[in-house]
């Protein structure tokens, strides 16, 4: 019966091509606007490391006190001071832990004809690679022993490896950064979690893939300053040591806690550490700490751009308007066929059959609108850069899942919109139509 109803529906659609075109265009425009906005929201609210987001935590310790927290709803700084970072690293209360900060080193190509250039780079600890599930194309990360020895080693990204070594295995070769030579120990495979959960503060959540890591300890020895944002009241003239031993916050700190008991234990440790600093006279306020996992951290940092949520609400409103118009067009289309319905009912067709016929016809319209919507969503995704920041716009893509969702939403919404017109058509009285005919 479905095939029979589909043939009837397609025949009816060809009977009123202009009306059919209006409905298809309305559905196509409405679903395309909604899916384009959804593509942006999906990209920006994505879980960047779903397999471990509940195990990775960002600790926060209030080392500034009421003057800062009063302006920040009682929240400590997003970043960690060097003093607290070293204390937490030495205590080693987590299964894995790392401190990270962005560095702005220049890469010196072996070819003298090429100019130095920079890529997104970080100084971190050996645990970084295992904690963040960073895949490797060649080699691996450095060891904890190399952290302690402050070794001049580096891990580079695949893109940088392609540029410097034409994709060859570069493990064991050297890379020159700001005039200092580093031995390459690993080449990362494609790794670009978005949002950039491990450094939300300086990247605002979205940036190019990180292409270089060097040991944190080595970067400190070379006095490589932070390239990202820092919350500091110490001037550069005070010197490197004064900066390190100040209350400046400029380091991203992450720990891996595999279960609930370890989370509770680490939170208690942070509370105890802050209380110890208060007793020592360093903190003049009550302990104020936070411990958030990846998803909580991204939510706290409000990584999802508010304009993406607003655009989705606006586009959904537009889609609803399109559906209301479609309801009116379907009602007009179905009721014009009242004589045909009366004859079918007089010949024994049930109301359920009338319902089925018109809902299948509406589904055909929705499918056509969905196909148009997929094409228009593709065009919308290409034009997102005109509205959103390029670092966000490039994340929104039209993949098979989005195309399938577009088709599904178009068909479902159109069938839903057809319920009232189909109900009105099924209520047609056969005797009235036969008499009037």
Automatic annotation (TrEMBL):
<keyword id="KW-1133">Transmembrane helix</keyword>
<keyword id="KW-1003">Cell membrane</keyword>
<feature type="transmembrane region" description="Helical">
    <location>
        <begin position="312"/>
        <end position="334"/>
    </location>
</feature>
<feature type="domain" description="ABC3 transporter permease C-terminal">
    <location>
        <begin position="313"/>
        <end position="430"/>
    </location>
</feature>
<dbReference type="Pfam" id="PF12704">
    <property type="entry name" value="MacB_PCD"/>
</dbReference>
<feature type="domain" description="MacB-like periplasmic core">
    <location>
        <begin position="20"/>
        <end position="266"/>
    </location>
</feature>
<dbReference type="InterPro" id="IPR003838">
    <property type="entry name" value="ABC3_permease_C"/>
</dbReference>
<dbReference type="Pfam" id="PF02687">
    <property type="entry name" value="FtsX"/>
</dbReference>
<keyword id="KW-0812">Transmembrane</keyword>
<dbReference type="InterPro" id="IPR050250">
    <property type="entry name" value="Macrolide_Exporter_MacB"/>
</dbReference>
<feature type="transmembrane region" description="Helical">
    <location>
        <begin position="400"/>
        <end position="423"/>
    </location>
</feature>
<feature type="transmembrane region" description="Helical">
    <location>
        <begin position="355"/>
        <end position="388"/>
    </location>
</feature>
<dbReference type="InterPro" id="IPR025857">
    <property type="entry name" value="MacB_PCD"/>
</dbReference>
<feature type="transmembrane region" description="Helical">
    <location>
        <begin position="21"/>
        <end position="41"/>
    </location>
</feature>
<keyword id="KW-0472">Membrane</keyword>
<protein>
    <submittedName>
        <fullName>ABC transporter permease</fullName>
    </submittedName>
</protein>
């Amino acid at each position: 019966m479905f095939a029979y109803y589909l043939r009837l529906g397609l025949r009816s659609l060809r009977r009123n091509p202009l009306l059919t075109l209006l409905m298809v265009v309305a559905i196509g425009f409405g679903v395309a606007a909604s899916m384009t906005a959804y593509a942006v929201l999906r990209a920006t609210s994505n879980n960047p490391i779903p397999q471990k987001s509940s195990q990775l935590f960002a600790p926060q310790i209030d080392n500034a006190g009421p003057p800062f927290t009063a302006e920040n709803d009682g929240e400590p700084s997003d970043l960690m001071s060097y003093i607290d970072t070293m204390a937490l690293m030495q205590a080693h209360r987590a299964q894995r832990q790392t401190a990270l900060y962005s560095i702005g080193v220049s890469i010196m190509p072996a070819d003298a004809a090429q100019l130095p250039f920079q890529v997104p780079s970080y100084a971190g600890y050996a645990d970084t690679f295992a904690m963040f599930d960073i895949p490797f194309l060649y080699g691996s990360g450095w060891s904890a022993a190399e952290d302690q020895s402050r070794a001049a080693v580096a891990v580079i990204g695949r893109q940088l490896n392609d540029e410097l070594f034409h994709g060859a295995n570069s493990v064991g070769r050297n890379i020159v950064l700001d005039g200092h030579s580093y031995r390459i120990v690993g080449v990362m495979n494609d790794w670009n979690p978005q949002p950039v959960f491990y450094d939300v503060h300086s990247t605002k959540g979205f940036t190019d893939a990180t292409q270089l890591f060097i040991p944190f300890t080595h970067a400190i020895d070379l006095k490589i300053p932070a390239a990202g944002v820092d919350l500091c009241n110490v001037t550069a003239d005070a010197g490197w040591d004064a900066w390190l031993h100040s209350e400046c916050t400029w380091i991203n700190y992450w720990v891996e806690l595999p279960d609930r008991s370890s989370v509770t234990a680490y939170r208690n440790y942070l509370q105890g550490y802050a209380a110890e600093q208060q007793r020592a006279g360093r903190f003049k306020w009550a302990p104020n700490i936070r411990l958030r996992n990846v998803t909580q951290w991204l939510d706290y940092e409000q990584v999802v751009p508010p304009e993406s949520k607003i655009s989705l609400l606006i586009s959904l409103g537009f889609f609803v308007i399109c559906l209301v118009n479609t309801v009116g067009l379907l009602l007009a289309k179905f009721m014009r066929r009242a004589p045909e319905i009366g004859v079918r009912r007089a010949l024994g067709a049930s109301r359920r059959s009338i319902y089925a016929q018109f809902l299948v016809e509406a589904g055909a319209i929705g499918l056509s609108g969905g196909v148009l919507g997929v094409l228009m969503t593709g065009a919308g995704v290409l034009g997102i850069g005109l509205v959103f920041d390029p670092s966000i716009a490039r994340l929104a893509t039209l993949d098979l899942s989005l195309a399938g969702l577009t088709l599904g939403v178009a068909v479902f919404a159109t069938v839903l919109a057809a319920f009232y017109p189909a109900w009105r058509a099924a209520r047609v009285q056969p005797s009235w139509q036969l008499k009037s005919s």
